[in-house]
Amino acid sequence: xxxxxxxxxVSRMQxxxxxxxxxxxxxxxxxxxxxxxxxxxxxxxxxxxxxxxxYIGFGDGGSRSxxxxxAQKLDNFFGTILRIxxxxxxxxxxxxxxxxxxxxxxxxxxxxxxxRNPWRFSFDSMNGDIFIGDVGQDSWEEIDYIESGVGGTxxxxxxxxxxxxxxxxxxxxxxxxxxxIYEYPLYxxxxxxxxxxxxxxxxxxxxxxxxYIYGDWCTGDIWALIYSD
Length: 229
Fold this sequence. Notes:
Elements lengths: L6 E9 L6 E13 L9 E4 L6 E5 L21 E5 L25 E4 L4 E6 L6 E5 L5 E7 L6 E2 L5 E2 L2 E2 L16 E4 L8 E6 L12 E5 L5 E4 L4
Parallel strand pairs: 6-10
Antiparallel strand pairs: 1-2, 3-4, 4-5, 5-6, 7-8, 8-9, 9-13, 11-12, 14-15, 15-16
């Protein structure tokens, strides 16, 4: 959650005697840091189906265009997906397999970075691959992909927006950035903000099996995307 002082907070709590109600007094804060602006907080977290670690998405810190270049820095949590081990009595530990583990100049919790506002990411329940709906700035909404177990991916924001240099009228070096697996233009026919979904692995709608389902906040439309290599 984001508290009244504009800090992003990740906490662990116990349920009360009623399993549908949290015991507020049991709160143990794991991560807390101040947001420079009040937008692009990310705000999604999920446990990995294969490794059991907690993955946490944060936006670039807000305003517009990532004015501080946060998403390309590795000394803060902005514009990242973190990966931590909460299987402890208190706090958390950093998995040794994290790409920046034990690097004093980089946050060891970071799993991937270069994201603007990852809303939302999810795991393919079959293989643990990660799909990310990353909200665009001026021109492009994007779907990003991380193969299961692959850390350190840089998706390029704020040097790239989707497959394109940012700002659009500039030139840039895209070497080392992971391009999206799909992008669609912003503010065309009312679209404005991607909402990441899930790879469907159910058996009720066979025509959707294995497809990534996602939507857009402004239109309310829902689409199915086929990812193939």
